[in-house]
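ingest -> fold -> write
write: protein_1
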Amino acid sequence: MEHISKIYGNGIVANEDVNFNLKRGEIHALVGENGAGKTTLMKILFGMEKPSSGTITLEGAPLEMNSSEDAISHGIGMVHQHFMLVNSFTVAQNIALGIEPKKGLFVDSAKVNDFARELGEKYHFDIDPTAVVGTLPVGIKQKVEILKALARGARILILDEPTAVLTPQETDQLFAELNVLKDLGHTIIFISHKLREVKAISNRVTVMRNGRSVGVYDTDELTEEELSAKIVGWEGGGELEKAPCTPGEVLIRAEHLSYYGGAQVPVLDDVSFAVHAGTVLGVAGVQGNGQVELVELLTRARELEQGRVEINGMDISRQKVRALREGGLGYIPEDRLRQGAAAGASIRENLISCSYYRAPVSGPAGLLSNEQIDAFTRQSIADYEIKCGSGASKISMLSGGNMQKVVVARECSGQPSVLIAEQPTRGVDIGAARIIHQKILSLRDSGSAVLLISADLAEVMKLSDAVVVLYDGRIVAYFPDVSAVTEEELGLCMLGLQRHSPERIQEVTK
């Protein structure tokens, strides 16, 4: 890809004179902050976007792609961060979808299964072709997505945040499989914010910043710290400073929570825990083990079926969301687009959406104070380093990381006594993640109780004082001192391969 530029109709420059090259049989990492232009560049390579200028050549021949179908026909495949699978179909049906072998007018199911099985064996992917995708863990779904691309002849694979929801053990297995693909001559583009994994798996790395490529490096030549500095453009960072915690009174207490939601078996099964003021309790677990339901029960998005929850000593079962907010609850939701922001509203409107009715935003007569709103907006933009034109810009114009900073600024601005942080830095760059992490620890140090739910084990271990592991809707492990546990131990518990005794788990309720 040579001299690629992409300028949208509203004048936004997503890519500016970018050069990007791949070698056959390499794993090439693509890194950069949110809004650096990585996604746009890959959409151009995969035919989802047309460049404003620049050329693409494949093995010396010029390429002009008008669709993803064109890219697939030239051996380019993309595995998106959010899986695009049909959950009610089997593994084999998903892999062969659209290219199924036929027997007369009908799909030949036996050949579909054989095709998927042979493909898995060829690339050393351990799969069951007849398994229904909706019943599978995320690590297996990841394999199905990759095999789906390989089934269509992909020789170049674009992997967007492929390890975002994997345990350490699943990540190790994925890396082994990617190395098999590399040895067979496939070329892999690995997009990730996890620099340790970039170092572990890639041969070369391209760094993007502000829509431009700022360097291509042999991965072995850079330390994680040097790579981080090149991504953000400054020498800063190092380890996040975390003072010892000083536990206070219990501000979140959950007792014997069970939730069925219409299912025959509980999605949550007798879950109890307590979070003290001045501490962060991390909840680790592979996605789909009850984390979403737990958060929605705590934030009143679902009605309690069994059990009791107290926040700041208040039984939440009959409380409105506003009452919880006024009682000191802050909530950073997992999905910033669906739950965390009003896409059609401005940054300033999103920032005051939970406080528009009270001082200082609202005056004695109930009238909004534009002066106070503007001051709060300017302060939030400065404190959280939100990259935007102005507070009047629509939040939908921001990159994912900057949108997340707006959500965090809103939720943390009132110094909540209780913060529920659900995947607070998913999909954000290292600079944005650091700002968010510092704010969470600042709240904890000022006496707030923080419940952190994250699939990122590095984040859980960096921020938490203690950790519980959710597996199959139950707390299966409790680590009262996060400094005494490894990611590998947590990973084994997340996979259900290790469990703690009921007596030890009971300690998290004290």
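write: protein_2
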Amino acid sequence: MNSAIAESRPAIPAAEERVGKYDWTALASDLDDYGCAVLEKLLTQEECRDLAALYPREEHFRSHIHMARHGFGRGEYRYFRYPLPDLLGGLRTALYPRLAPVANQWNKRMGIDTQYPDSHADFIKACHDAGQVRPTPLLLQYVPGDFNCLHQDLYGDLAFPLQVAILLSEPGEDFTGGEFVLTEQRPRMQSRAEVVPLRQGDAVAFAVHNRPVQGSKGNYRVNLRHGVSRVRSGKRHTVGIIFHDAR
């Protein structure tokens, strides 16, 4: 991989150790059952504050999006540029191989031929070979009245079917409202909503687009979207780890 876009390597061993402490069998089961799974206390309070403090520092970012201009809701976010901050790059690299087996199993159950490589470096190379070269990890900021419409983070033909969001602010202290929400559209049935309670430093892994559900006649696909409910007070920061890059 080009050294100019490679994720920072020193943080990877620490990130792998941190990520490896979770019960990934239980997390995979939650992903299968609900389309999401919570990794409690993935980041410390200090790490959360440090990441949130990057928001006004434009040198870390490649673009700045105001949601209202695009009909995405209200609020704003910035896409990081390469190289990613050590902590973020390390977590992106360490989380991917834990989620790839779930992604591969899902595709097999849904009859999708695509299988994902074991390492994130190999997957990113495939993205870049396909012309998807812009980094997608992002830092989001919400103030009172802001919200994020239900959406899917798809940026090109190659898309990894799981992503991770980490709450950097403390509910009830830094902000109120602003719950993370998933909706699941099921064929010939009413949609199902899932509100995911998070504390500062908690991460949620969740389906980007589709996931399989076992029915009486085999597996069928459900379509998922995610968003954030209206922030009532304070300021809310979240970092999003998307594993594919964008065109």
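write: annotation protein_2
The longest strand covers residues 218-228.
The radius of gyration is 17 Å.
pipeline exit 0
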